[in-house]
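Worked Example 4.2. Consider the chain below.
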Amino acid sequence: MEIWINPACSKCRAAVDLLDAEGADYTVRRYLEDVPSSEEIRAVLDRLGLEPWDITRTQEAAAEELGLKEWPRDAGARERWVTALAEHPELIQRPIITADDGTAVVGRTDDAVRDALARK
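Applying the procedure from the previous section yields the following structure tokens:
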């Protein structure tokens, strides 16, 4: 299990605290420092069953600068979104937990983190 975090994020810290409290075996990836490649983002999206715009933080300054709210949200624009996430990792929703069963969750709630822990 791996968790992508920004240590400055309260939701990330809460998720890590819960994983620790549950005795989970996991690795931490500070994705702002260890930036995921486009390939890794695509793989996580597949595991999440989501599209890139579903995990994009559209309120961030970079999103405003790029005009993301105006971008199409369709298959033809998917790679443009993936590239934006790879080039501006602060736009990636957090925390993302890759579960042992090959799936992933956006762990913004305790229930979501527990869901990741339950996936075997």
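Helices lie at 10-21, 38-48, 61-66, 78-87, 110-118. The two ends are 10 Å apart (CA to CA). Compare this with Example 4.1 before moving on.
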